[in-house]
Structures are given as structure tokens and as C-alpha cells.
Amino acid sequence: MTDSTHHSGGDVPSYVDWEFAKQAGARLVQAGPTVSVAQAREAVEEIRRLAAEAQGPVAETSRLHAPGTAPAPMVVDRPTWIAANADSMSALMDPVFATLMGKRDRAPSALASAVGGKVTGGEAGVLLAFLAGKVLGQYDLAPGGTPRLLLIAPNMVQVGQDLRVDETDFRRWVCMHEETHRVQFTAVPWLREHLIAEARALAGDMAPDQESVQERLQQLVTRLPDAFSGEGGGLMDLFATPELREKVARLTAVMSLLEGHADVIMDEVGPEVIPTVEEIRRKFNRRRQGTGTVDRLLRRLLGLEAKMRQYKDGAVFVRAVVDEVGWDGLNAVWTGPETLPEPREIADPRSWVARVHG
Prior knowledge:
The protein is mainly alpha-helical and about 350 residues long. It has helices at about 20-30, 35-55, 55-60, 80-100, 110-130, 155-165, 165-185, 190-205, 215-230, 235-240, 240-270, 275-285, 295-300, 305-330, 345, 350-355; strands at about 75, 135-140, 150.
């Protein structure tokens, strides 16, 4: 990796010191559940085994197959997840930052860049530390690198204990969801680059230029209560223009599809493979609502409440389409960007069926 205060070209200062973000995140992240070394090793080995076992049921249920060349899932701890995401965020965002800084009338001094990079790196580290205690698994798109599925062992152990469910069934259930994401991005070759390009374009559009910074700050002050309401997409949503909201809605529709599809698959595998699936789903849905006041507040500010709705809305879409045209009919959604659901179609699955299947 190149120096975190520079882009890959080494000639443009970065907005974020990503190495400092990793260090800050690793220091701030909460410790995992209290288990012995032997118990931790057993959990990692079981999760790795269950992830491998999930491949067959997910492929059979989804009618999608990951190529044999797709990397196997990695079982990681919280600091490793933080480091991987800092690297991915750097690869995703640094080109955007380079473009923005190229538009400035005057480049910042080396000292200002170093100080600013540390500040934003610290902020990124705080965010990553918070999320590292929440995420059970993630398909890391790894722009410019090797994408692969990450399974966060301490979180899977912790949540399984907290829910008081059969821990092996819970871990297998989570592996079904995350394996579905691995299949989505490996069986559908164009999807990864499409999402990376869309995310970069959106990030560039949402970043304020020098002329609009004051206006955006005024928007933040006057509309901050909206972020606390949980009705929107968090702090980022406060800065969006109507045009940007439309772009956000389109990307949100795709994310709703991906999350809802994975949620349906993990449940459709059924009690033959996961005997306690109904109990796990019931208890897990309650947990998704957030456990405490501070947790709910942070979820709202970060837009995680909106993400929770993606699971529900996307699952309703997937089930409705499958009822209408079957799994093979649903899989027409993966044909290309033009067959992905539009925002209105997530709430009206029949309109997607009519558009795609005639």
C-alpha cells in the first residue's frame, strides 16, 4: 500500500489518513465476547466449515453458482475487518478526493494536508470501530484488489449468545446470507464494477464544492432534526439535492434487492438444514431494531435505520417476484444494469415483472 497521506500517484494529498483510521479503529473497537483460546479456535473452525457447507444449499435455492475461481470466505476478527474496510474505502474514495482537490484554486500546504488527514482519519476510525461491533459478515468489493467474503467471528459468537439460540444453527444461518452475497457478486460478473462505479459517482456528486459549503452547512443546521427521526438516510441524506436523492434512490433499490435476496435465501433454505430457523428469524428481527437509546440514535444518524428497511423491502420484492415468475424469472434481474429494479419497482414488484418479462 502507498503512504496513506497520498493517492496512488503519490502527488496529491489525501483527505483521509487511512493508516491512522486503521490505528484509531483498532484502539477504539470494543473487545469481543469473553471466550477461551480453545473456544475461539473452535468457533473459527466451525464458521469456516459452515461457510463451505452453505455453498450447496444457496446455489440450489438461488439457481446461481459461484465460479470455482471465487476466493473462499475469510473468518476474521474486528481489527482485521476494520483494516480491510479502510483499504477498500481508500481505493473507492481516493480517486474521488483527487478529483475534488484538483478543482481547488489552491492546493493545501503539506502541514494542512497532514493535519486534515489525521482528523478525517480519526473520524473514519470512529465510524469503523462502531460498525466493526455490528457487522456479522460482508462481501468486500475491494476496489482495485481481490474481493472476498469476510465473516466476523466475534460478532457471530456474541450475537448467537445474546439471542439465546442454537449457536451452530445461528452461524449456519448467517453463513447462508453471506454466501448469497458471495454468489451475487461472483456469479454475476458485471455487478461488482457497476456498484463501485455508481458509488464513486454518487460520492463525487454529494461532496460539496467551495461555493456550496456554506449552503450545505445551513441545510445541516435547519434539517438536523430529520436525521434524528430515522425517516431518511441519516446525515448524508441532509446534503442531498433532488437530483442526488434520485441517484441515491436508484442505488438504494439495488442494495434493497441484494439484501432482500440474501434474507429470503437464508430463510428459504429451511428447517431441513437449519432446524431452528423460525426462532432465529423472530429473535433476530427484534434485535435489528436496536437495543438501546444511544444505539438507535447512532443508527439513525448513520443511515442504518434506512439499511434495515432495505432488508424488509427487498425481501418483499423478491418473494413477490418469485411467486409471480419463479426463481428463474427472478434471476432475469441479474442480466444487466438495465434489468435491476428501479426505486418504484421495489414497492411494486409487478411493475418490474411487466417491464422485464412483458
